[in-house]
User: Fold Quinone oxidoreductase YhfP from Cupriavidus pinatubonensis.
Amino acid sequence: MNRFLAYRLHDDSPDGRVAGRFTELRFDNLPPGDVLIRVAYSGINYKDALAAAGRNAIVRQYPRTGGIDLSGHVAASDDPRFREGDAVVVHGFGIGVDHDGGHAQYARVRGDWVMRLPEGLSPLEASTIGVAGYTAALALHWMEHNAMSPEQGPVVVSGATGGVGSMAVDILSARGYMVHAMSGKSAEHAYLRSLGAGEILSPEVASQPGKALEKAQWAGAIDTVGGPVLAWMMRTMQPNGVIASVGNAGSPQLDTTVLPLILRGVRLLGINANSPMALREAVWAKLAADYRPRRLATIGQVIDFDALPDAMDRMLSRATRGRLVVRMDNESPDLERGL
Ligand SMILES: NC(=O)c1ccc[n+]([C@@H]2O[C@H](COP(=O)([O-])OP(=O)(O)OC[C@H]3O[C@@H](n4cnc5c(N)ncnc54)[C@H](OP(=O)(O)O)[C@@H]3O)[C@@H](O)[C@H]2O)c1
Assistant:
């Protein structure tokens, strides 16, 4: 089969706005690379939704197939490390941004970007984890490297119903941490408790500027929101508490003081999921073992390929929760219907 479907982002509309459309491609339309992958599942991440809406100048060259993470099976390989049929996962390295990504039934990428799935993780599990779960696990990996442990006290997670947030709540609670989930979605408290959140708090607690140091509450914090939420985390950390700054779904600004850093020894870690392959392999191995999420079936919602555009719109209007996983090897949406 040399014809397949991709969701391509274009900037050729008369008003210059970015718009996506389903397009039939052939293998020779794919970018160069050593490994051809038949995509089984592709995640939807906040960055994918921003890119599809033409926001934040994420994609700079069009047309582009979005999708920053994918799982599937090797269909052909010029790289001796991979054989036809190998189950693999690819995320980052510019896929879905500078290089065509996972929102297509086939992808061609460089062998250096491809990671064989760890033993015990299926493509569906790997895509439910996706960049979001990898990022949550990478945050925890570096936090524990900085001496955080469950005995030291609670860990607060912001944007808790999102992809990264949901994965963080699940993995932390499975590992014995007391998790306080911060979420603006009052209707999702039962969901957050089902992932293992012990307490739930509203982002309202962070909305007012406070003193440079406030009541010390948290041994750890994973922040996906930025802005006043991260500033509040800094001033409410316990001595030697560890913060992982992961995202800026609320704001990229940070208005704070150095006092939590120098008077309480708070450690502020930056987390970038686009990490070197050796670190990916180490963290994915943990995701298949000690950091294995328990609630993937609750966190993941599998949708068909033709539901992708609507799902990305809903994500930007904050109407999604957990991980949205696109089933790619389903029957193609009907080309005749002009999809
Ligand atoms: N550092 C990295 O390498 C890396 C990797 C992956 C993701 N990220 C970043 O992490 C963030 C989360 O990504 P995701 O894929 O988990 O996205 P997501 O599924 O859309 O989750 C984001 C969550 O943040 C909260 N939120 C959304 N808009 C907000 C706003 N305007 N103000 C305050 N809170 C808001 C919502 O949680 P509640 O409704 O529960 O409050 C939402 O569910 C994004 O900024 C993303 O770019 C970074």
